[in-house]
Every structure is written in C-alpha cells, then in structure tokens.
C-alpha cells in the first residue's frame, strides 16, 4: 500500500501563499508515489479550544474529523505562515484539538510515529523561517519526527507565477524535493515500525 500523506497550510486565506506551497510539494509527494489528501482548514472550521467546551460537549464534530484524517495518514506536509514570529493560531488550535484523547484512545495518537516536513512563505525577507522554529518545536514535543530539511520562501508577493508555481526554478525544485523526501522518509519509518512490531 502506498504512503499516505495529509497536506495542509496553516492559513485559511483563499489566496494563501502557503496553500500554493502545499500544492507544489504535493506534486513532489505524488511523484514519489504517495497518496496525498489535501486539507483546507477553511472547509473544517474549529472553535477556539476551550477546556470547558470540551468538558461540556466533548470534541466538536470537526475536531473528530480532523483526528480521523490525521490518524489515517502517516506523514504531514505542512506550510505555515509566520504570525508575529510564531505559529498561526489556526494551526496551533488545530494541533490542540487533535491532541485531545477520546475515551480508550492512546495519548497523542494523531502525532506519535508520524513524519512531517515544514515550509513557509511570507512577503517578508525571512520567508516565515522564525515561525517554523516554533512549529518544529511544538510537533517534536508531541512525538512527530520533523525532518531537518525545510524551506522558507521570502518576498512571496513576487515569488509565484499565475499558476501558483515558483518563478525561481531552484526554489520550485526545492519545494518539489521536500514533498518527495517526506514520502521516502515516511515510508522508511513506517516499514521500520512494522518490522519492530512483527
Ligand atoms: C503577519 N505576517 C508576518 N510575516 C512575517 O514574515 N513575519 C511575521 O512575524 C508576520 N506577522 C504577522 C502577523 C499577523 C497577525 C498577520 C495577519 C500577518 C504577514 C504574513 O506573512 C502574510 O500575511 C502571509 O501572506 C500569510 O500567509 P498566507 O495566508 O499568504 O499563507
């Protein structure tokens, strides 16, 4: 069976630069033989995490949907904007909901033994690089193996062509390669986990 990758941006914005990056990297991942599911958080609105709400009503339907999606995939392809030098509230909120166990579920089941690759785009010169430091730290602390390879694309207003591809060939190649690398590394980790179980 092929490697299953869930691809999403940490922005719901319709013209999101980070969504464009996800689409390019998805091409790279599919080229490496993966089955990629694209998740647009605009289609999966989540309330702001509130422990009282969870206690009163359990997980919202969309949080359950998110968890099912994450559980069904072995790797995460993530492009996240930088907001005030950090992760976006949208992505942090999604992670927080997905981290909540339901009765009988092992802890952090959406995250443990998963592999992620990170990228970002920003109109600024650093391309959102400082935000990725935080995304990496958060995911690493909940059991995700975050690949050391990453890419931040600066000057995003000028960087993409009308088809959503990067004008700079080497940048385009790097993002495609990140998608590809995620698949090879996810496949390796998954097969070694299966070996350790058998
Ligand atoms: C930003 N932006 C931004 N950019 C950056 O490079 N460093 C930063 O610290 C911030 N901070 C920040 C805070 C807030 C609240 C907003 C709304 C924006 C700009 C951001 O990179 C820009 O809006 C991107 O276009 C967002 O990514 P998407 O939606 O295009 O994927």
UniProtKB/TrEMBL annotation:
<dbReference type="GO" id="GO:0005829">
    <property type="term" value="C:cytosol"/>
</dbReference>
<dbReference type="GO" id="GO:0010181">
    <property type="term" value="F:FMN binding"/>
</dbReference>
<dbReference type="Pfam" id="PF03358">
    <property type="entry name" value="FMN_red"/>
</dbReference>
<protein>
    <submittedName>
        <fullName>NADPH-dependent FMN reductase</fullName>
    </submittedName>
</protein>
<dbReference type="GO" id="GO:0016491">
    <property type="term" value="F:oxidoreductase activity"/>
</dbReference>
<dbReference type="InterPro" id="IPR050712">
    <property type="entry name" value="NAD(P)H-dep_reductase"/>
</dbReference>
<dbReference type="InterPro" id="IPR005025">
    <property type="entry name" value="FMN_Rdtase-like_dom"/>
</dbReference>
<dbReference type="InterPro" id="IPR029039">
    <property type="entry name" value="Flavoprotein-like_sf"/>
</dbReference>
<feature type="domain" description="NADPH-dependent FMN reductase-like">
    <location>
        <begin position="3"/>
        <end position="158"/>
    </location>
</feature>
């Amino acid at each position: 069976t092929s490697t299953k990758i869930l691809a999403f941006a940490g922005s719901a914005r319709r013209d999101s630069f980070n969504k464009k990056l996800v689409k390019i990297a998805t091409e790279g991942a599919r080229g490496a033989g993966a089955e990629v599911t694209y998740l647009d958080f605009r289609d999966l609105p989540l309330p702001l995490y509130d422990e009282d709400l969870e206690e009163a009503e359990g997980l919202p339907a969309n949080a359950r949907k998110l968890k099912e999606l994450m559980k069904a995939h072995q790797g995460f392809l993530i492009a996240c904007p930088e907001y005030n030098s950090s992760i976006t509230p949208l992505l942090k909120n999604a992670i927080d909901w997905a981290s909540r166990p339901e009765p009988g579920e092992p802890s952090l089941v959406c995250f443990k033994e998963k592999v992620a690759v990170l990228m970002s785009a920003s109109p600024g010169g650093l391309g959102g690089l400082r935000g990725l430091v935080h995304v990496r730290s958060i995911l690493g602390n909940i059991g995700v193996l975050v690949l050391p390879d990453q890419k931040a694309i600066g000057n995003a207003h000028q960087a993409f062509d009308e088809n959503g591809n990067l004008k700079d060939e080497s940048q385009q190649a790097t993002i495609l390669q990140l998608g590809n690398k995620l698949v090879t590394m996810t496949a390796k980790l998954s097969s070694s986990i299966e070996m350790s179980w058998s």
